[in-house]
Amino acid sequence: xxxxxxxxxxxxxxxxxxxxxxxxxxxxxxxxxxxxxxxxxxxxxxxxxxxxxxxxxxxxxxxxxxxxxxxxxxxxxxxxxxxxxxxxxxxxxxxxxxxxxxxxxxxxxxxxxxxxxxxxxxxxxxxxxxxxxxxxxxxxxxxxxxxxxxxxxxxxxxxxxxxxxxxxxxxxxxxxxxxxxxxxxxxxxxxxxxxxxxxxxxxxxxxxxxxxxxxxxxxxxxxxxxxxxxxxxxxxxxxxxxxxxxxxxxxxxxxxxxxxxxxxxxxxxxxxxxxxxxxxxxxxxxxxxxxxxxxx
Amino acid sequence: xxxxxxxxxxxxxxxxxxxxxxxxxxxxxxxxxxxxxxxxxxxxxxxxxxxxxxxxxxxxxxxxxxxxxxxxxxxxxxxxxxxxxxxxxxxxxxxxxxxxxxxxxxxxxxxxxxxxxxxxxxxxxxxxxxxxxxxxxxxxxxxxxxxxxxxxxxxxxxxxxxxxxxxxxxxxxxxxxxxxxxxxxxxxxxxxxxxxxxxxxxxxxxxxxxxxxxxxxxxxxxxxxxxxxxxxxxxxxxxxxxxxxxxxxxxxxxxxxxxxxxxxxxxxxxxxxxxxxxxxxxxxxxxxxxxxxxxxxxxxxxxxxxxxxxxxxx
Lengths: 296, 314
Description:
The structure holds two protein chains of two kinds. Chain A is mainly alpha-helical.
């Protein structure tokens, strides 16, 4: 068992202990567990079919039969909210996964090799940073065509620069450390040094950024769905449900309330866990508000 | 200072060049022929040929880009595929609506965030501080369009105080403008306020722990004087940046809020252009917003360097 693995296990224990100690982070973690269960088993757990139209039950207020009420087509809102959790999680995970892999790779090469490569890559990231997040995502989806996959790609692209910057900043400090210079002097290849020595030492800020970005990605997906650029009907998405329900909101408050509350709770849970992870792993990193400002 | 300004100007120029390239390439990413896609069922060979020629799509890609760049520099962003009107005019027409919403939202945010952030830092650990932290966590997690919908439900549906949507120009009827802007501005403003509150609080806390603040307190100055004369002046320097960056991002059009409240600004224009597949208008709106964003960031950096000379040294 290498020393590195032991350190990682120690860090994992520290993270879990910190999450258990912080009541807000614990609540956030529990919400996320429930969300994953609902996301994975939504179709089986949902009390009704998501597209079961029932004209006799149109715009029914919350009741025992329909705890979140019914929509303008008589469909059960609770079932649709539950099944839509999968879409939010899926888009969040895949888009942040894209941003993490692409951004961290670019940041790793830029920070490690410096010079012209660093200049070119970071100027490209500056260009992407010059666009407000949602505007760029809307423009990308607009040209590629609306849908789940394009929404994931668009959100992935707009969050790539933040990962590139966080990674590069970490690499710049790690590459000057004695153990990296020692690895160079014994003839280790650049790729090996990056993989074995640099990456594990910049994992903490990347984990924190991933957790916070998941919250922003879910908000972005909800906004794209609200604009009709995400998941297409009749499949449910929280943002789309809000958009469809906005015309009835003064007569049927539940159509506007429950899908929005689901987005809020999910994003809040990711933010609470992200904040707690930051406090344990990387206390110098930005707070959620500051991170959001830097990606706005 | 002069060297810093020149360096920042050159950096911004390079980024702006990259922005024009990205915006130009957007049209190239459209699967198939963008003019044909845009015309859809209204296809007519004459209009099609005219629009293609006007957009320069019959030229090689490199020629197209430099032509686009040359025209953009002179303020010509092409013509709308839908109306045939110049894109620059269409985009600029929408600017006042977005500007009035963004400025009102930022003023609202500052009115909420400054007292809350300052009191929360001075009385760190108090009930107000806890309330401020809950508020800022709420603000960064809540979807603004959900808050907008809940606002419509409460202030329009239940109380009947404010109109649910629509726009009246400030110059036309200031009273009706105010009643229409209140809900969207408060919606956007609350999210901005939560970000600002957290920033003001942490900036104040940082300055409060400085030696010169302790000195001021030690020589017997009243808390009010210490806070106003020594803490606020220094703590607010970085806050200026945040306020300006927030304003810049709101100028980019809060697309979802403008769509929800039928507010005819840049965001709504972008949404309509997407729905109508009017790519030149989409490109024009995105380019203008990104250029504005860059300009505000540049001005903020220069202002910041003037307020805090250590920046130019860094």
